[in-house]
UniProtKB/TrEMBL annotation:
NCBIfam families reported for this sequence: thiE
Cofactor note: Binds 1 Mg(2+) ion per subunit.
Protein name: Thiamine-phosphate synthase
InterPro entries per UniProt: Aldolase_TIM (IPR013785), ThiamineP_synth_sf (IPR036206), ThiamineP_synth_TenI (IPR022998), TMP_synthase (IPR034291)
Length: 207
């Protein structure tokens, strides 16, 4: 399992309709064609869809992922993850505890966001499959993002957890992705670098 997870994190695209200046289905299809290795549906924040509209979009995006053999991971919404039978669920520090999510979803991929030592010390990592570490750089995509932690946070996590799949997040672009990998991450997760790209194929290629 671990080996496969390390690989899935390499180019991890995250988005919801609120992040997209164009049709999210078209953006995801272009990113999938270009070679992303995982997708997270994060319909959250200002302008995001709810209820039936959220579910319908999630279903369509999942279909695109399935046709490209890319895992479809749902952010935070356990109910939706269950209803769509998503491949995984990503949780933050303010969501349900990892232990409980693991009990509900014994076979799904579970990711957890970690931004600092305190969160690391209180998080039961044995219940999660990967860590989302960030924000590595400053980002304007997430309004409540914590202070940037730099690639040092990636190195620290890698040192403390040599075998744990780790993906960097926050302000990552083709210009700085290699520094995140060099620090020890298995991959990079990006929102705006792809949703706002003029040429998605070349961005994905350079991550
Ligand atoms: N989570 P962009 S930063 C969704 O630090 C998210 O946990 C973060 O967007 C964290 O690639 C972030 O456009 C936003 O900077 C990432």
């Amino acid at each position: 399992m671990n080996d496969k997870v390390h690989q899935l994190l390499r180019k991890y695209f995250i988005m919801g309709s609120q992040d997209c200046p164009r049709d999210p289905r078209v953006i995801l299809a272009e990113a999938a064609e270009a070679g992303i290795t995982a997708f997270q549906f994060r319909e959250k924040g200002k302008g995001s869809l709810e209820g039936d509209e959220k579910r319908a979009l999630g279903k369509e995006l999942q279909h695109i992922c399935r046709s490209h053999h890319i895992p479809f991971i749902v952010n935070d919404d356990l109910h939706l993850a269950n209803e769509l039978d998503a491949d995984g669920i990503h949780i933050g520090q303010n969501d349900k505890p990892a232990e409980e999510v693991r009990r509900l979803f014994p076979d799904k991929l579970i990711g957890l966001s970690l931004s600092n030592e305190e969160e690391l010390s209180t998080s039961p990592l044995s219940f999660v499959d990967y860590i989302g570490a960030g924000p590595v750089f400053s980002t304007s995509t997430k309004s409540d993002a914590k202070r940037p932690v730099g690639t040092e946070w990636i190195s620290t996590l890698r040192e403390k957890h040599p075998a744990m799949p780790i993906v960097g997040i926050g302000g990552i672009s083709p210009a700085n992705a290699s520094s995140v990998i060099k620090a020890g991450a298995d991959g990079v997760s990006v929102i705006s670098a792809i949703t706002r790209a003029d040429n998605i194929a070349s961005v994905v290629d350079c991550l």
